[in-house]
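Blinded run. Sample ID left blank on purpose so nobody reads anything into the name before looking at the predicted structure. Input follows.
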Amino acid sequence: MALWEAGVPGGIYPPVPTFFTRDEELDVVTLRRHIRRLADSGIAGYVLMGSNGEAVHLTEDERLQVLEETRDVLDGLRKQMPLIVGCGAQSTRQTIELCLQAAWHGADFVLILPPAYYPGRMDERTLHNHYRAVADASPVPVLIYNMPNSAAGINLKADFICSLAQHPNIVGVKDSAGDVAKLMQIVAQVSSDFRVFAGSADVILPALIGGAVGAVAALANVFPQAVCRVQTLVEQGLLEEARLLQGRLIPANTAVTTRFGVAGLKMALEHTAGYGGLPRQPLLPLTAPEQHSLLEIITTVPAEV
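Blinded prediction complete.
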């Protein structure tokens, strides 16, 4: 953890898919291939077991194997890149247990989605107690994960996130609600060592201008150089170039997130990287017309940036 004492490094983090064989077994060969492919692309680190990682489809043993295999690849490459691991669960007790396991097996940070099985009871008092208990117990720093689409519509408010930011072991937020105004409000109220990340590649430019330090972006799995380039251009002050590139990424980002989801992300990888595979059921692969539509969209992304 000494490497990350200054907080979560800014930059682009792909939420890594979990790959499966055709009989739905864990495909560690493809996972390792993907981690190696991204290692020199300009990304800042990796997010494992997030929404795009199909965390809800994995057994406890599979979760640990994904983390161990990823850490082993990076150690072999001698890459010092942070691993952020999704550990949100439906009880505080289970969430803490996942944090302990992740830390033991090589996680640098944990990403916590709010519990949402009983959404009517998840008021701010309940969620505040949950996050503080997790942060108190976690051996590694905690990032809040706000994603209403994966949490029964629960959308953490800016003031709530800012209140949690006062906990010494809560060090950042990934906000996937797409509300740049809220990101700016959070940045204005928290200390500089609390790291704010956008949750999608379609808002990198406005989020960075508003004070975010990077993004956790599914599209970075498919086009890592292009997604990272948006942030580089912003940091260089080349806002017009950043605006044009950002605009070209939006249709592809929509395709692999809200429109086609995990199956679309994996199919996009099949077309661009030669691997990807299928999601685990109940998710189904794209139909032939959907594949055709996806291919038309992703071919508009510039191959070189």
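Unblinding after everyone has recorded impressions. The CA atoms of residues 29 and 215 lie 27 Å apart.
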